[in-house]
Input
Amino acid sequence: MTFTKGFLRLLVVLLIYIIVSPFIPSGTIASTGVHIWLTGVLFFAARTAQQGTKKPFILLILAFALVLYWLGVYEVIEFSRELALGFFVMFYVLILISFIKQLCVVKQVDGEVIAGSLCTYLIIGLLWGAAYNLTYAIDPDSFSGNLLDNDVGAKVHVFNYFSMVTLTSLGYGDITPQTLGASSLCQVEAIIGNFYTAVLVAWLVGMYGKPLRQRKSEN
Output
């Protein structure tokens, strides 16, 4: 596994999706554009993760996920939404593994490395967002809160928001877990969010200072 380029562009399209898509009302023509944008974002992420390896497994999982996702958008097959969420969880896990492996081989910090670190952080949020969404689809009593009760926006945006809030340990309390399984997911994400930030900062500082120490030792 080698470190590849493309993380800066992926970071931009990820941020656009996360920030802009919740403002688009569900059931409108513009919401179809959001679905198309998400499809493109996921293919972009898969392409970035797939570089440096000849195994098409990530793209295969994504293909299954997107087929089921679009069938769910148009309500063609019953339970396609739950199946799509399951495949999305697997897809995000594979993306995370690929990104972490790529970051582990870098020898010097630059803009692409920092962008890759941020992309990994956002993918963690999307992974748990899909996991929360899947948990809620299976058991609607697993979460409660104003955003869920008022049916504000698509559930994917609601749980992505809840995931990012949990990942950063912000915790507004507008959505809360109501089962032990949901609570367990939340606490694991909070732990990972804190550890990732601490380890990432230490790693970036260490990698940034490494060339400086090498130059000093040579002099």
Q: What stands out?
A: Strands lie at 143-145, 175-177.
